[in-house]
Amino acid sequence: MQPAVRRGLYRQFLGLLVMAVVLPSLAFGAAMVLARYRAELDEIDARTAASAHVLAHELDESLAALQASLHVLAAAGARHRLDWSVELPELQRRYPPILTLIATDARGRVIGAAPAAAAARAVGLDVSDRDYFRQPARSGRDYISDAFVGRGLGSDPLVVVSVPRYRDGAFAGVIEASLAPAHVYDENGHGDYETVLLDRAGRVIHASGGIGLKFMQRAADTGFAPALAQRDAGAARRAVPVMPDGGHAFVAAARTRGGWTLYAVAPRELAARPALERAMSMIQLLLLAVLGAALAFVWYARVLARASSLLLQRLRALASGAAPAPGLPAGDVPMPEELQPVLAAIVDLSTRLDHAHAELRQSLAEREHDVAQRTEQLRAALRELDRVACTDPLTGALNRRGRDEFVQALAAQGARLGSVAVLLLDVDHFKAYNDRYGHRAGDEALRTAVAAIRAEVREGDDAVVRAGGEEFCVLIPGVGRARVLNIARAILLGLYRRDIEHRDSEHGRLTCSIGVAMAYSVDELDAAMDRADEALYRAKRRGRNGFCS
Fold first, then answer.
1. Rounded to two decimals, what is the model's pTM?
2. How many CA atoms lie within 13 A of 186 on its CB side?
3. 115: preceding bond cis by omega (within 30 degrees)
4. What's the CA gap between 170 and 223, in Å, rounded?
5. Strands 148-149 and 157-167
6. Is 70 exceeded by the pLDDT of residue 338?
7. 446: closest CA among 424, 423, 422, 472?
8. b/e map of 138-174 (b: 16 or more CB within 10 Å)?
9. What confidence tier does 1 reach under pLDDT thresholds 50, 70, 90?
10. Beta carbons within 8 Å of 476's beta carbon, 6+ residues apart
11. Which of 129, 391, 425, 476 is deepest in the core (most CB within 10 A)?
12. What residues pair up with 253 in beta bridges, in sequence order?
């Protein structure tokens, strides 16, 4: 009879478990997943709109900075006779996204151009029929073009910015800058979002790789048309089929001050993926809970059977006056509350055993405490040894081993890494500084250089490495080229402002030179290091206390 009874209890318990736990949990979990999925869609929709406006603002600021630089050059030309072969290359150096620069006279003849390779072909060309000349000449206002293909200095995809220049109150020509569409704005660092930039005629200036649009395509004639129709209709945003594979995405648009339209595109899978992950997690937790409850029931049924059997044997032994059977310690068996009055009659028989167990547990607890303390001390010592092994003792910067571990951590990020900026920094005339002021002052100068570097980089996210002697390497992941050049400029200024006297330097104080390069994956780091090294030597040849890229 006992096995049949046990099987009946199992069926009843499993039925109650399904009715009382599994079905309500599934219904509640499904409702939570659905609600969260809808909230994710709303949140992605809102973030998409915010991203579009942020990107449009960044684009406006970038173009405004370029226009300001062109106006500064035009204003200088109004006061002085400039050597365009010098001024235009200098502006291009300070604004790397520029492909070409030209300056014209009032009749539309090119009188200066950069780079030097373009100047040989451009000087003397008549560009009076170009919109970038005619519009500023006629209106006196700045001009930002739509997408077009160059035909004077090449056949590259371009957008241009031009500003009028005046001399003695009369129109004297224009200064025009040509930009590659891919360099109009920095699309790095926007996670899973895609971007599309359209000109005033609705043609593609630039689109990120996941959208599949090409330069100067009419967006209305492509798979991106549903996004345009949604925007023109002015309806509430919803996911539309704009992805190349037919997938749906949320699309938000923002106008730039120049009349372009920037779209931020967020695939709907951004919400579906976490919702599916949560559903799988909930199912796994539910299965674990059901399994745990079933195991607990089986265990408790066995405990009850063992307790009943033990009590029965003890009672028979007491009734017959015989000693309890060996190997049956009553105190070690969990006893249900209903059976505890029976157990109380034989508790005194196991008192001494309980005392022995208590002493043993106390001894084990003390030993475990000692082991835990020693383990923590050992871990702290190992952490300190690892830190010392990865750090240059003089400057506190990372050594070669620290750099290798940092690069391994970057490699683990895979496709999420994005770009990595490499800055090679060399303290100018450091040997002469050591010879004049002594090695102790030289060591302090190196520590000062590291402090100037660390003041401009992110603690924990970026790596400052002493590559050897007075040379340092800085690795900065996840930033664009313009930001890196600003960091290099800030490091130069930070060290210069510390005003450390150096009589053997042409600048009269301690300075450094910096070479800058970009790597777009960890595999490109070695090549980027070589390019940064070449740029460092160019900076030194140009007079030091500067940077090149």
1. 0.48
2. 16
3. yes
4. 49
5. antiparallel
6. no
7. 472
8. eeeebbbbbbbeeebbeeebbbbbbbbbeeeeeebbb
9. very low
10. 420, 421, 423, 457, 458, 462, 484, 487
11. 425
12. 263
